[in-house]
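Example 3.2
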Amino acid sequence: MALVGEKEKREQLTEEIPELDRRKEKMVEILQRRDQERQQGVERRKLAKDVITVKEEKANFFTSAFSEEKSAIEALLASCEGADRTALTASFEEISQKMQRLQKFINDSMMFLSAYELRQAQAAVQKLQGAVVEKRDECLPKKKFAFKSRRKENAGPKEPKPSPPSDTKAVQPRVIEQNLCGFSDADSQVLVSSADEINGKDVLLTRLSNCFVKLLGSPNTLHVKNITNSKVLCGPVSTSVFVDQSAGCTFAFACQQLRTHNTKDANVYLHVTSRAIVEDCNGVSFAPFNWTYEGIERDFEQAGLDRAKNNWNIIDDFNWLAPDHSPNWSILPEESRITDWDELSAP
C-alpha cells in the first residue's frame, strides 16, 4: 500500500511540474512586459521633454531672428529721410524683399509657435507693413498713375457728387508707382488690373464701395481695407492677404496666408497653403477658391503656391479659444456658392 501511495504522489508531482513551469513562464512574461512598458514610458517622457526643449529653443531663435530682421527694416525706413529718388527706389525694393522674407519666416515657423506668439508676430508685421506704405507714400508722393477702369456697364447717369474738402484726397481710382499699387476712393466701378501692373508688387485696395475688382496676376501681398458691398477677385498672392474693416463683400483669394480683421458678413472663396486667421470678425463664410482666368496656372507657379494643398476650411479664430466650433465663421453651403464668375457684375 505504501508503494502504491508513493507512486501516486510521484505521478501527481510529475503532472504539477509542467503547470508550475507554465506559471513561471507566464510570470516572467508579465514582468518582462511591465519592464518594457516602464522603459517605453521613460522613453516617451524623455522624448516629450526633448520636444518641448526643441520647441522652446526654436521659439527663442524665432524671437531673436524676427526682432533682428524687423529692426533692420525699421532702420532702412529711417534711412529714407532726405534720400534722393534713386536711393529711395532701391531702399523700398530692399524693404519689400525683406518684408517678404519676414512673412515667409513666420509661415515656416508656425509649427512650433504658440497661438499667442503667432498673433504677436503677425500683428507686428501688419503694423510694419503699414509703416512701409505710409513712408513710401510720404517719400514718393508725386509719381502717380491710374489703372484702366470702366464704369459699371448699363449704369445710368449718376448724380454729381459735391467736391471734397481741400484737405481730403480726390475721389478717383488711383495707384502709387514703384512697388505699391492698387485702387482707392471709388464707388460703383469695375476696376481691373493686369499681370504687368501688379506682378510682384504690394497691392492696396482701400475705401471702395459697391465695386467689382479683378486683379489678374500674382502680387506679392494684398491689403484690403475699408471695403463695403464689393467683390474682390485676386490671382495667386506670393505671401499674405490682409483684410480689415470690410463688410458685405465677396472675396476670392489664393495665398500663403489670410489674415482677416474687423470684417463682417463676407463670403471668402479661398486657396491657402498655410492657414487662415480671423479676429474680431462675425458672419464670415468660407468656400474653396474656384475663380479662374486665362493664365492663372502660370500665376500659381510664379506665386509658388501648391495647387494640391488647400486649407480653406481650417480657420483659426483668435477670439475663440474654446475647443468647439467658433460662431464667428462658417462653411458656405454648396448651393449658395458662386459657380459662374463671368456672370457677375458690379453690385
